[in-house]
Amino acid sequence: MTRLFGTNGIRGVVGEMMNADLAVKVGRAIGTFFEGGSVGLARDPRLSGPMLARAAASGLMSAGCDVIDLGMVPTPCAQYFVAKSGHLKGAVVVTASHNPREFNGLKAIDARGMEMRREDEEVIEAIYFENRFHAAAWADVGSGRTDDTAISRYMEGIRAKIDAEAIGKRNPLVVIDPGNGAGCVVTPYLLRSLGCRVLTLNAQPDGAFPGRLPEPTPDHLGDLMRVVSEVHADLGVAHDGDADRATFVDDKGAFVVGDKALALLAQAAVKSRGGAVVTPVSTSSVVEDVVRAAGAKVIRTRVGSPIVARTMFESGAVFGGEENGGVIFPDHQFCRDGAMSAAKMLELLAHEGKSLSALVAALPQYHIKKANVAVPVERREAVLTSIVEFAKGRKVDTTDGVKILEGDGAVLVRPSGTEPIFRVYAEAKTPARADALADEGVALIQKALGHR
Residues with catalytic annotation? Predict the structure, then answer.
């Protein structure tokens, strides 16, 4: 069967595959799957958001669902609203997260506030492609109403899990760059309420993303790094378009690599309590090193935050996340949460009484090298099979792609879930060895493709 949902929902360029017709049909399919009941609706600030949200709402109501429109809010804010409501069937969130401005997307959320299981997405896809939509009778068509309490509930939920007194005593100076995304309406206000002095960049919601591109990576955060350094701030925080991720800049104006921020937050989560940390096979060994040193264990999964969240839910893990800034705090909710990540990083700095640059410097040092190789989608399985064959006799992990484990490093080769490429992740204790392992990963793909 044709797939509709990717790793994180349905995404496409607006005016091409992502259009009002698609949103109506997806709304009808999700509404049919939910069999009526109340369903949340939210969006990020993208220019096409109101169009697609209204179209999706129309589809949901036509299938007999009552739609509660939460407005323009961060995705984790909508997920928190659903999870704590106790009666919503789920939600539809209109967002393309970190994708460029011309994209938008549709994300299906279940009653727990988690991204839909793949099995449920497949049921929705079957309804969609087979046109098995429920059409409610005239008296059973769903209603629509707005609810403007999602942001206040979400912020109260975060504050209840954070040591605001410790943060307030430190009174840190924080520069926040929500990137004109949904984080504008939460994070600056949340951090001020926790006792921070806050400066903002690109903190007006704008779906044209005039300040920077939505992906919070170092090449897009030059202004944030410069301002943090110039004003001698304690921390810089950046979000993606829907604020389910947070990346950090340290007190010296340096971007903190995602694996290192994840390691620090994981270390704090397992300190004195143990438990399990869930993270994909693509995450650096630095996370494993600090978690094991604290007496806890690491569970590795395939790449993708819905998979990490599900594994955490099923295993009772105390923490999880990916190296891209997507971090999950299960005692808060089972999804990536950018505002919670920012608050937890500030709490960590307050409890440790040290600068972020000092904490990062104290971590075990690994060097990471990444590469991409174009591979046609139809050759994906054959290439993977060939690489497994080439790696015979070596220590490998095939949880997601092929990860070759050496005594002094590792290289992971896996197909992208969103593009016709294979991704190569190599890590080692020295830059030269990381480069060599990445080159080996690229060479294995080229060999599998039949290139010399």
Answer: 97
